[in-house]
Amino acid sequence: MSTHDHNDVVVHADGETTPARFENPGLHEHTPRQADVDPRVTKRVERQVLALFTASIIGTIVVVWAYFALPPGETASSMRTSNIVLGVGLAVCLLGIGIGGNYFIKVLMSNREYTEERHAQRSSDETREVAVQMLQDGAQDSGLTRRKALVGAGVTALALFPLSILVPLLGNVGSDWNVRKFKHTMWKKGMRLHTDPTNRPIRAADVTIGDVWHVIPEGLEELEHGKLDEKAKAVVLLVRLDPRDLRSDQSPEGETWSHDGIVAYSKICTHVGCPVALYEQQTHHLLCPCHQSTFDVADGCKVVFGPAKRPLPQLPITVDDEGYLVAQSDFTEPIGPTFWERATK
Amino acid sequence: MKALAARRHDRRAPALLLLLALLIVGGVYAVVVPSSAQATNETATADDIAAGEKLFQANCSTCHGPSAAGTDSVPSLIGVGAAAVDFQVGTGRMPMQMNGPQAPAKPVQFDDEQIRQLAAYVASLGAGPAIPTDEQVDPALGDSASGMALFRTNCAMCHNASGAGGALSQGKFAPNLWETTPTHLYEAMLTGPQSMPVFNDANLTSEEKRDIIAFLDEQGEVVPGGLDLGSLGPVSEGLWAWVVGLGLLIGISVWIGAKSS
Asked: Where along the chain is heme c 2 bound (chain B) (predicted)?
């Protein structure tokens, strides 16, 4: 191996010295395992490995049997039986092989260490010369050095071909780059508030204090295209508070966006867009289930806790001639989380 | 049965039979006629109301006040109706044992008769939702598929997709619904106890409430996946995967790498 110079030492500040190189200690002495010296242990391990492999075989048979004999069927309990037997059978089948095989290798197979010296990695000068000569001859023979224009065209073709995959791929990422859609929902002046999922118009007189109504716009269910996209933007939570509890809403000067204690707020969290709908009737707090953002419905849906930064936008509502709740307009600001082009207020 | 047969010539038998017949007629009447606040007030006798008032003064007036009008921190019971009393007292939530984030369900302190009397008294204070009839809450009559759609929109955010319950803010929680009786489920939707909002009959009709009860009736019994880990979703499943699953993998890796003795 390496040559050792015992004078080559490192002297530390406190005067102590350590050698710059340590001698290779080599392999430690081989210690036999219990199974190598005690035939009873060997026998026991053999039996255990055999048992593990046998369990695996039985596991496979059980899985195949259960696949035919215990179909999932129609009821929850038959599905449960099928799942449990298949799962346990598969686990025994695979763990039996894995644990048995490892046990076999670790305990019964020879664990004697062998050392194989590494040969020199550099080839002889003669071999290297021959290899270089062969490459040069090949290049000469192929004519690549003469036909530069052809090679250039080939390399260009190769360099351009990934575009045929990349361009459609990037083009399909969010096939639509129209951000204006984020700024509007399908709510319009005079559109009635309907219940979700039963799609009934809501009469203001039917909304009692402490109620919570999950609301979709009138006509949403009848949409032919993009129903879910529209629903994801337009869903609203409607709550009636005792007017004395309603400290503020988001109505600007001179307008009334709520009706007799009834307020409607977007259900889409301004943090990352989860549906905010855990309403605590007594505290008037509205919680988002994803990151616990909490909004105070009695106070303009201001954020009182959590990572959301903006209040939930309010849908301006009023009642029509027949007493049904209708929207005064669309939301006056984009609903949901912040996006690139959203003007911050 | 033999003991019954031997007593059929008893002097008191006709009176007893008459009472029984009256009870059956009353029961059928209650089932057939849709209940309303007025209906309960009619079926509750003046005696019930008087007995209920005594129970109220002895057990509830400390907090709710002798006239049940409540205070700033205690709700008024005028107009909450018999349904609210049957729910709060029938699930043991009331009388409250101590102050806390919310009044949890605990062993019921009154028998059915006393609860009925209390409910009659509170219903007499002001019109409110009545206790639903057996037909209104019978899960067999509901449509569980419609119930699932309604539950998903109106209830699942707090009570979890399968009704296993979940956490709210500051120690409050939405309870598990698997063991709740259909009547109490109906009353909870109708009256909005504690943190829960109200779902009145215009919001969720009586039939829709029954659909939800039918859906809940099918939850929590047999889980097709095997171990349900409380049906609590990513929290308990994540804990299981990270602690038990990864722990097992690490253990096996250490075992594979270790030298045999």
From this structure: 155, 158-159
Which chain B residue is nearest to residue A282, measuring alpha carbons?
B195
Please report residues of A whose CB lies closer than 8 A to that of B197. Answer: 210-212, 239, 279, 281
Same domain, B73 and B146: no
**B179 and B154 fall within a common domain:** yes
When divided into structural domains, chain B yields a total of 2
CB atoms under 10 Å from CB of A11, counted, come to 9
Is residue A170 predicted with pLDDT exceeding 90? Answer: no
Among chain B residues, CA nearest to A277 = B157
- A240-298 per-position pLDDT tens digit: 998 888 888 888 888 889 998 999 999 999 999 999 989 998 889 999 988 989 999 99
Contacts of B168 in chain A (CB under 8 A): 278, 280, 287
**Which residue of chain A has the CA closest to B74?**
A282
Domain that holds residue B72: 33-130
Annotation: CATH topology of A181-327:
Rieske Iron-sulfur Protein (2.102.10)
A282 to chain B, minimum CA–CA distance in Å?
Answer: 5
Best mutation site among B144, B146, B153, B172 for testing chain A: the one with the most A CBs within 10 Å?
Answer: B153
pTM: 0.72
Q: Given an 8 Å threshold on Cβ–Cβ distance, is A35 in contact with B260?
A: yes
- Matching residue, tokens 């889409």: A268
Give the mean pLDDT of B59-87: 88
| C-alpha–C-alpha distance, residues B113 and A30, integer Å | 84
Q: Which residues of B are annotated as a binding site?
A: 60, 63-64, 155, 158-159
Whether B147 and B160 map to the same domain: the answer is yes
pLDDT confidence of residue A191: 94
Decide which of B62 and B32 is more confident: B62
Q: What whole-number distance in Å separates Cα of residue A87 and Cα of residue A70?
A: 12
Identity of the residue in B192, B225, B255 whose CB atom sits nearest the CB atom of A281 = B192
Tell whether B104 and B162 lie within a shared domain.
Answer: no
- Whether B145 and B206 map to the same domain: the answer is yes
Residues B62 and B123 in one domain: yes
> Which of B130, B145, B179 corresponds to the end of one domain?
B130
Q: What is the CATH number of the domain that holds B70?
A: 1.10.760.10
> B150 and B123 share a domain?
no
The answer, yes or no, to whether residue A6 has pLDDT greater than 70, is no
Whether B1 is covered by a domain: the verdict is: no
Instruction: Report in angstroms the alpha-carbon separations of A334 from A234, A310, A312, A322.
Output: 11, 11, 10, 30
By CA distance, what is B228's nearest residue in A?
A: A80
Share of chain A above pLDDT 90, in %: 59
Contact A211 B203 (CB under 8 A): yes
Task: Tell me what percent of chain A is helix, strand and coil, each rounded to the nearest 5.
Answer: 35, 15, 50
CB within 8 Å: B195 and A282: yes
Is B259 inside a domain boundary?
Answer: no
pLDDT tens by residue, A183-241: 889 999 999 999 998 999 999 999 988 889 999 999 998 988 889 989 999 999 999 99
DSSP character at residue B103: -
Query: Is there a domain that residue B26 lies in?
Result: no
Q: Find the helix or strand (DSSP H, E) in which A11 lies.
A: strand A9-11
**Cβ-based burial of A316 (10 A; exposed 0-12, middle 13-18, buried ≥19):** buried
Query: Is B245 within the bounds of a domain?
Result: no
